[in-house]
Amino acid sequence: MRAGHLPRLTRRPSDRARIRFRERSDVSDLRVVINGAGGRMGQELLRAVLNGEGLSLAGALEHSTSGHLGEDAGVLAGLKPAGVTIESDAAATLNGTDVVIDFSTPASSVRLAERLAEAGIAIVIGTTGFSAAENAAIEAAARRTVVVKSGNMSLGVNMLAALTRQAAAALGIEFDIEIVEMHHARKVDAPSGTALLLGEAAAEGRGIHLPDWTAKARDGVTGPRRPGDIGFASLRGGSVVGEHAVIFAGPSERVELVHKAESRTIFANGALTAARWAKGREPGLYSMVDVLGLAG
Length: 296
Ligand SMILES: NC(=O)C1=CN([C@@H]2O[C@H](COP(=O)(O)OP(=O)(O)OC[C@H]3O[C@@H](n4cnc5c(N)ncnc54)[C@H](OP(=O)(O)O)[C@@H]3O)[C@@H](O)[C@H]2O)C=CC1
Ligand SMILES: O=C(O)C1=N[C@H](C(=O)O)C[C@H](O)C1
Known about the structure:
Layout: H1 6-10, H2 15-28, E1 30-35, H3 40-51, E2 55-61, H4 73-76, E3 86-87, H5 90-93, E4 99-102, H6 106-119, E5 122-125, H7 132-141, E6 146-149, H8 155-170, E7 176-183, H9 193-206, E8 214-215, E9 230-236, E10 242-250, E11 253-261, H10 265-278, E12 284-286, H11 288-292
Parallel strand pairs: 1-2, 1-4, 2-3, 4-5, 5-6, 6-12, 7-9, 8-9
Antiparallel strand pairs: 7-10, 10-11
Helix pairs in contact: 3-10, 6-7, 8-9
The protein binds NADPH dihydro-nicotinamide-adenine-dinucleotide phosphate and ligand LZUJQKHR.
Ligand LZUJQKHR is lined by residues 128, 151-152, 183, 187, 192-194, 242, 261.
Pathway: Amino-acid biosynthesis; L-lysine biosynthesis via DAP pathway; (S)-tetrahydrodipicolinate from L-aspartate: step 4/4
GO molecular function: 4-hydroxy-tetrahydrodipicolinate reductase; NAD binding; NADP binding; oxidoreductase activity, acting on CH or CH2 groups, NAD or NADP as acceptor
Family: Belongs to the DapB family.
């Protein structure tokens, strides 16, 4: 660099220039709406958006009988007032939104995805516990708008899924695959979305169709394990954020791949990465594997 250029670079911008820059960066901020804003993940996401760079909170949604309606989203999240109140009227809130991030309930996610498909607004879905019919409805919505959906938004779990696929492909059928998960006492669905995602990865590695090879909820005299099954076990208790183990139990040896979530920030950060990635994409159903570039 030529010495003559240094003074120009180190000079502080005038107030007017700084205001102009601020206005420009506001215009380019990603405008995000959070659905399920009053929940554990909703509040985590409010903090992540309000503290994040290049993001603006365009709205915060809850259901029509939520006790949080009318509260300030910043205050709800334990921050200073954000000037955004918790609403239940999606139509009024969505105007000018780039991406909606949804961690709520399956029924709410499906309704919202259908509405966003009509409006051409992208959605990042973290909700888990969908039925086959609800998954089909989301796939239909993804033909008209961008949908990023994953049972786990964290980098670590998506890496674990890649390792699971690899191990399942390399180890023969004599290695029994069992997936064990533990979550907090308030979780309502089982197996967890992550456990199912890991099961899909193991099935892909083995070249089998997961629903045909799933063993869930063993109880009573079950008979011996069917060779080739992928087993699921769910534990619930306390405040556990989320723990998953994929066990490959072979003859006289065992391989265990484990992920332990220590904070919900990993899910919120992943969801924001997905939201940034989603902007401007072609309509379609994407996963965190696409967002994180982990395919193959
Ligand atoms: N993919 C991932 O990485 C992760 C996924 N999850 C999943 O996200 C979902 C939410 O988890 P969590 O935050 O712990 O659960 P919470 O129950 O704490 O939050 C869900 C929120 O959604 C609200 N809600 C219910 N119905 C509607 C509706 N129709 N419209 C808008 N909001 C609604 C609930 O309100 P109310 O409480 O009044 O019913 C609640 O505030 C779960 O399915 C969970 O498995 C969680 C963590 C990570
Ligand atoms: O409900 C939760 O808390 C979590 N749900 C997701 C799941 O079902 O796997 C992800 C994470 O483990 C936390």
